[in-house]
Every structure is written in structure tokens, then in C-alpha cells.
């Protein structure tokens, strides 16, 4: 036990210093723990943001692929065959012949934006119009 007031005061100051030192150490430890938790949370948030961004990009892409696959399944292959007296030709072959006639006249296929075929069975002729230009050309079937 302290003998004098001075010794008692010094003992009390020593205890306060010890408590202050313990408090300082506890605050420092708490700050380190909070810093670690903040860093962990930031890392988790960063990972979650990357995952969300990746999903946001991939989800529409998957939807487009799925829609394209569905459209492909639903697509029906078609073929048109034109039957005339003594002649039977596919629409595709007539289109190719019109394009060949167009280019043989010195025109470019790149200039062809629209092609319309008129098949005249009585005459045995195919007339074609390119880009709505009257009388572009014709050929016999």
C-alpha cells in the first residue's frame, strides 16, 4: 500500500497508463480487424461485380444463339419449279440466268439491289427487271 498521497497518485497514474496502453492496443487490434473485413468485403464485391458483368454479357448472347437456333429449326426449305410446255426449270436457275444476262451486258452484280422475273409461258420468255428499271433484259426459257 502506498504510504503517501504522492505515492498513491503515482500508483493511480501507473494504473491509468496501463489501462490506456491496453485500450490503445485494443483499438489498434480492432482497427486491424475492421481493415481486414473491409478488404475481404471489397474483394467479394469486386468478384460479385465481375460475375454480374460477365452474366450480363453472356445472357443476351445465349438468348440470341437460342433464338437463332429456334429460327433455323423453324425455317422451311423451299424450292420453286416452273413447268412450261416442253420445259421445266427451277426458280433458282432462272434467277442465275437473269444475273448472268445482266452481267453479260456489262453491268455489275453489286449494282443489283432488286430483281423481278416475269415468266411468259405463251412466248416461252423470261423478262427481268433490275432495280425497278423498265426492260432490263430477257431470255428464252
Q: Strand order, biggest sheet?
A: 3-4-5
Number of separate strands: 5
List the helices and strands in order: HEEHEEE
What value does the average pLDDT take? 81
- What integer value in Å does the Rg equal? 44 Å
Helix content: 55-70%
Per DSSP, what share of the residues sits in E-state strands of 2 or more residues? 15-25%
Low-confidence stretches: none
Largest sheet: 3 strands, antiparallel
Structural class: alpha+beta
What characteristic shape results from the CA principal axes? rod-shaped
Short description:
This protein is an alpha+beta fold. It has helices at 5-74, 91-104; strands at residues 81-84, 87-90, 115-120, 125-130, 133-140.
Descriptive key words:
141 residues; alpha+beta; 3-stranded antiparallel β-sheet; two-stranded antiparallel sheet; 5 strands
Describe this structure in words.
Helix content is 60%, strand content 20%. A three-stranded antiparallel β-sheet has the order 3-4-5, covered by helices on one side. The chain has a two-stranded antiparallel sheet with strand order 1-2. The protein is an alpha+beta fold and 141 residues long. It is rod-shaped, with a radius of gyration of 44 Å. It is built from two helices and five strands.
Amino acid at each position: 500500500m502506498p504510504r503517501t498521497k504522492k505515492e498513491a497518485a503515482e500508483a493511480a497514474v501507473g494504473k491509468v497508463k496501463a489501462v490506456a496502453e491496453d485500450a490503445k492496443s485494443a483499438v489498434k487490434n480492432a482497427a486491424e480487424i475492421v481493415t481486414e473485413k473491409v478488404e475481404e468485403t471489397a474483394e467479394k464485391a469486386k468478384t460479385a461485380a465481375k460475375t454480374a458483368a460477365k452474366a450480363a454479357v453472356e445472357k443476351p448472347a445465349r438468348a440470341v444463339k437460342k433464338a437463332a437456333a429456334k429460327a433455323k429449326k423453324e425455317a422451311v426449305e423451299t424450292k420453286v419449279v416452273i413447268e412450261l410446255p416442253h420445259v421445266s426449270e427451277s426458280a433458282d436457275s432462272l434467277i442465275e440466268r437473269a444475273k448472268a444476262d445482266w452481267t453479260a451486258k456489262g453491268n455489275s452484280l453489286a449494282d443489283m439491289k432488286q430483281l423481278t422475273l416475269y415468266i411468259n409461258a405463251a412466248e416461252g420468255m423470261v423478262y427481268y427487271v433490275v432495280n425497278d428499271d423498265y426492260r432490263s433484259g430477257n431470255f428464252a426459257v
